[in-house]
């Protein structure tokens, strides 16, 4: 596998080694020692799978006191995946990385604990799967407004479909000020 560092500390793009022929392909979606060697050492405690239709935007989510690391990938369709640094002590606080993840490119994205994360669906349907380093606690969930001008994220959709909760997420400044 090939591991690509991004400009955000600890956020990695992972290109798995793919073995393919006319019959199809094989890849290791997770191998504890190889991922540990890449710096992903936290244990995974929960696997999630979501399916969304074209134009859906989920996020930008995080957990306040029990942050989750997430190893994410797409197994059907395509998404534009975004990670935002929300650590006020980080020199990259407020910066983001965006990556197109597809069932065809097989890329994975490692989102360490302490980042906000979200994605929008670019295909008719997308299956999004991820491993988490902590359990989901609804009472601990936080979010950032997907189109906060301070974040300046170039989402590939102008009018995404949002949950009511995500449409009311606060801006980065409010999150950093503890509001």
TrEMBL record:
Gene3D superfamilies: Jelly Rolls
SUPFAM superfamilies on file: RmlC-like cupins
Pfam families named in the record: dTDP_sugar_isom (PF00908)
Main function: Catalyzes the epimerization of the C3' and C5'positions of dTDP-6-deoxy-D-xylo-4-hexulose, forming dTDP-6-deoxy-L-lyxo-4-hexulose.
Record-linked InterPro entries: RmlC-like, RmlC-like_jellyroll, RmlC_Cupin_sf
Assembly behavior: Homodimer.
PANTHER family per record: DTDP-6-DEOXY-D-GLUCOSE-3,5 EPIMERASE, THYMIDINE DIPHOSPHO-4-KETO-RHAMNOSE 3,5-EPIMERASE
CDD domains assigned: cupin_RmlC
Keyword Translocase: no
Domain of life: Bacteria
Protein name: dTDP-4-dehydrorhamnose 3,5-epimerase
Source species: Pseudomonas cucumis
Keyword terms, alphabetized: Isomerase
One Gene Ontology MF term: dTDP-4-dehydrorhamnose 3,5-epimerase activity
Catalysed reactions, as listed in the record: dTDP-4-dehydro-6-deoxy-alpha-D-glucose = dTDP-4-dehydro-beta-L-rhamnose
NCBIfam families listed in its UniProt record: rmlC
Family: Belongs to the dTDP-4-dehydrorhamnose 3,5-epimerase family.
Biological pathway: Carbohydrate biosynthesis; dTDP-L-rhamnose biosynthesis
EC number: 5.1.3.13
